[in-house]
Specification:
Distance between the termini of chain B: 69 Å
Radius of gyration of chain B: 24 Å
Number of strands of chain A: 12
CATH superfamily of the largest domain in chain B: NagB/RpiA/CoA transferase-like
Oligomer: heterodimer
Shape of chain A: globular
Order of helices and strands of chain B: HEEHEHEEHEEEEEHEEEE
Number of helices of chain A: 24
Largest sheet of chain A: 6 strands, parallel
CATH topology of the largest domain in chain A: Rossmann fold
Shape of chain B: globular
CATH architecture of the largest domain in chain A: 3-Layer(aba) Sandwich
Radius of gyration of chain A: 25 Å
CATH class of the largest domain in chain A: Alpha Beta
Strand order of the largest sheet of chain B: 3-14-9-6-4-5
CATH superfamily of the largest domain in chain A: NagB/RpiA/CoA transferase-like
CATH architecture of the largest domain in chain B: 3-Layer(aba) Sandwich
Distance between the termini of chain A: 38 Å
Number of strands of chain B: 14
Strand content of chain B: 15-25%
Largest interface: A-B, 105 and 82 residues
Structural class of chain B: alpha/beta
Structural class of chain A: alpha/beta
């Protein structure tokens, strides 16, 4: 079993903080009963999805941009070794130092040693999925280093001893009055306390965060970031943000350490013209995000004197080895797929049990970690395969296709790459009934006479059908009623009304499958 | 070949481990040692638009007009002025917010700032706390992008170090129009020098982290004023 760590530590003895869920259905069921959470998520995802649709509609060439974005990322993946070597040479030539980390433990060790070398015990951080994935804050804390999150939502999560639940808006599960309560109760323990009489107006809450964080920005000597893009040709790193906390972390400290997944490289400077159009509109639904910082190594007298880039594998090369699943590595972390997903809207981000929630998490997490655990084996099922995620994806990741591919791997087992070595995955337990049903279905569907006979029997015996299935089928009907079988099948109706020769207009029965919301 | 760098601790070992994993993952048809050497990635389709300036009844939209509109849409305060009127406009905007001190990049043209204001030079020895005590900053820019309402700073002498446009709470940015305005991001890229540290600014800092409700003014300057300097037709100072 893979030991790849993707955040969500169990945190023994850790207060009210949510712990890693056992599997997706259990966690999703609990989340579905929380009316406040459901309300918060529904409001937020519906607001952003409508705005995104308007921002995308402004660009008539969106399909062409999307195709270019996907093609650039495919090029990155198919020549990843040479792009990384080129990037390393360019960053080094510009005064930076490049480190390679094969897994989370190694990345954490490198960063911890770099911070120790500065003699500092505090660092400021700009929101980064990669450092969340490897559990960097926890590793630093064990080494006696305090990491201050400076993104407003990450601050809310950190002060609330909570976990992020969305890629873009990590505190999307909290409403304004919950945030006010967290600020009132916890800010004082971490630094400057919340102002007296703080209300739940968003502008006032943002002002409280500004005051709380400002003293940290102005005194910090070490900053830690991720990056949205790294340009192989020039060695330039790009961080896209809104609040200005990114600029603070990237320019004020003397030492900057960036932890970046190896798939974030893009070949050329020009390629940024595609992603700087695709990302802001897909993610915050803006023509452009308020601030973008681009830096190449170090610059005399401007910004950090020391720059370290930690290139992170942590399972990415295993994903690369899967020719169907590797498209998940195109992801630019915009979170558009979360905002349109009916399952995410009801289950929330915590149910996915990793730093990467939503549809992209359902395909990325099991591939990065391997589908060895119960949670990971359940993630490919955290979808209704409605296809909305694929439609909004700015780099055209066919999430439904990868989900089906991963379900097959869970059920049938097969060859996967774990830590660079080919291993044979055993079929997951508990899917024996599914395997039997699929085999039976394949047999029956290849024999039309059998299907006809079966439907006739089902129609005639429909009064006898139970509401709940017995045996292994009980799990399926635990949360659903068994659909009522009509007295007459479509096939029988067609035969009766149009005669055995059929007629024109065949295929009407298929339209409902094609409709996607 | 050992595949576990954990015990080794050397970054160099992990470099070889990761590159080796990539080459194995891509298989024998991929490039690199052991492969056939033929790159397998298809060419990138670049048939997306170079710009998206909307057509109007009088022809194509003026990029300067579109820039002004998009900057204002993201809550930057936009002013238009001819070169002769610029110093008076800067003086008026600083006075309107009670600014008494201004950080000045080394290449800021003489005569832009009023006589009675305290000038704080962009000094690498100054601390962040010292900059925090300054009221405003006045800079030029590298270029501006009309479609996205973006100004780009690249650390040139009229713009200074990145932190001087970050810490003071009031940023006045001068854009020479029309020559510094491009229509789109694809038009901007070839005009920018990758090795210069860049800051792209599209409106004042903002957050949507509380219920996705947009709030302007978090950590960056809470007031961003963009001064479009060029022939205005009327010669009057600003709107």
């Amino acid at each position: 079993m893979s030991g790849t760590f993707l955040g969500m530590p169990g945190r023994p003895g850790g207060g009210s903080r949510p712990t890693a869920p056992r599997d997706f259905p259990t966690a999703a069921e609990a989340a579905g009963r929380d009316a406040t959470l459901r309300g918060n998520l529904r409001h937020a995802t519906h607001t952003i999805r409508d705005k995104r649709a308007r921002a995308v509609a402004e660009l008539s060439d969106w399909p062409e941009l999307r195709a270019a974005g996907a093609a650039i990322k495919d090029d990155v993946l198919l020549r990843l070794d040479s792009h990384l070597e080129r990037l390393e040479a360019a960053v080094t030539a510009a005064g930076g130092t490049v480190h390679w980390a094969s897994d989370a433990a190694e990345a954490n060790r490198i960063v911890t040693e770099l911070v120790h070398a500065t003699g500092e015990t505090e660092v400021i951080k700009v929101k980064s999925m990669a450092t969340q994935e490897i559990g960097l804050n926890e590793a630093l804390a064990e080494a006696g280093i305090t990491a201050y999150e400076t993104d407003l939502a990450e601050l809310i999560v950190q002060l609330g001893d909570d976990l992020p639940s969305h890629i873009l808006v990590p505190a999307i599960h909290r409403n304004r009055s919950e945030i006010r309560d967290i600020f009132r109760e916890r800010m004082g323990e971490w630094g400057r306390a919340a102002p007296e009489g703080l209300t739940d107006r968003p502008a006032e809450l943002a002002e409280a965060a500004r005051l709380h964080l400002r003293e940290k920005f102005l005194r910090a000597r070490v900053g830690i970031s991720g990056a949205n893009f790294m340009v192989a040709e020039t060695g330039t790193l790009v961080v896209v943000e809104s609040e200005g906390n990114g600029r603070m972390c990237l320019t004020l400290p003397e030492t900057l350490i960036s932890v970046v997944g190896i798939e974030k490289v893009v070949p050329t400077w020009r390629d940024l013209e595609v992603f700087l159009q695709l990302l802001p509109r897909s993610s915050t639904a803006e023509r452009m995000n308020p601030y973008t910082t681009m830096w190449t190594g170090t610059t005399d007298g401007d910004g950090p004197r020391e720059f370290h880039l930690v290139l992170l594998d942590n399972g990415r090369t295993d994903v690369l080895a899967d020719t169907v699943g590797r498209q998940a590595l195109r992801c630019i972390r915009c979170s558009a797929c979360l905002n349109v997903c009916p399952v995410y809207e009801r289950a929330g981000g915590h149910a996915y049990g990793s730093a990467y929630p939503g549809p992209i998490g359902a395909i990325l997490t099991p591939q990065l970690r391997g589908v060895g655990s119960e949670l990971d084996a359940s993630l490919p099922y955290a979808s209704s395969l409605c296809g909305a995620c694929y439609e909004v994806c700015p780099v055209a990741i066919d999430i439904p296709r990868v989900l089906v591919h991963l379900r097959e791997r869970v059920v049938e087992g097969g060859e996967v790459t774990v830590r660079g070595s080919r291993v044979r995955l055993k079929p997951a337990r508990g899917h024996a009934a599914e395997r039997a049903v699929m085999r039976a279905a394949r047999w029956a569907l290849e024999r039309p006479g059998v299907v006809r006979a079966g439907q006739r029997v089902a129609g005639r015996t429909r009064r006898l059908h139970p509401r709940r299935l017995p045996g292994p089928g009980a799990a399926w009907t635990a949360s659903r009623d068994l659909p009522t079988v009509p007295a007459e099948s479509f096939r029988q109706w067609w035969h009766r009304t149009r005669g055995p020769g059929g007629g024109s207009g065949a295929g009407d029965g298929d339209t409902s499958r094609k409709e996607r919301s | 070949m050992t595949d576990h760098a954990r015990g080794g601790g050397g970054g160099h070992d992990s470099r070889e481990v990761i590159l080796g994993r990539i080459r194995r993952a891509l298989g024998p048809s991929g490039p690199g040692p052991g492969g056939s050497g033929a790159p397998v990635a298809p060419p990138i389709p670049r048939d997306y638009a170079v710009s998206h300036l909307p057509d109007t009844s009088e022809g194509t939209t003026d990029p300067v007009e579109l820039l002004a509109e998009n900057l204002a849409d993201y809550r930057a305060l936009v002013h238009r002025v001819d070169p002769a009127g610029l110093p008076a406009l800067i003086a008026r905007l600083l006075a309107a917010r009670g600014a008494r001190s201004v950080v000045t990049p080394p290449g800021l043209p003489d005569g832009w700032l009023p006589e009675d204001i305290t000038r704080v030079p962009d000094d690498p020895a100054a601390t962040a706390a010292e900059l925090d005590a300054v009221d405003a900053v006045v800079t030029g820019c590298a270029l501006a992008i009309a479609e996205t309402g973006t100004i780009v700073l690249d650390g040139s002498p009229d713009q200074g170090r990145r932190r001087i446009t970050l810490i003071p709470d009031h940023h006045l940015c001068v854009v020479r129009v029309p020559e510094q305005v491009v229509a789109s991001v694809p038009e901007a890229m070839p005009r920018l020098v990758p090795h210069r540290p860049q800051t792209w600014i599209s409106g004042p800092s903002a957050t949507s982290d509380i219920e996705l409700d947009r709030v302007e003014g978090v950590h960056g300057p809470r007031v961003l004023e963009v001064l479009l300097v060029g022939p205005t037709g009327t010669g009057a100072a600003g709107y």
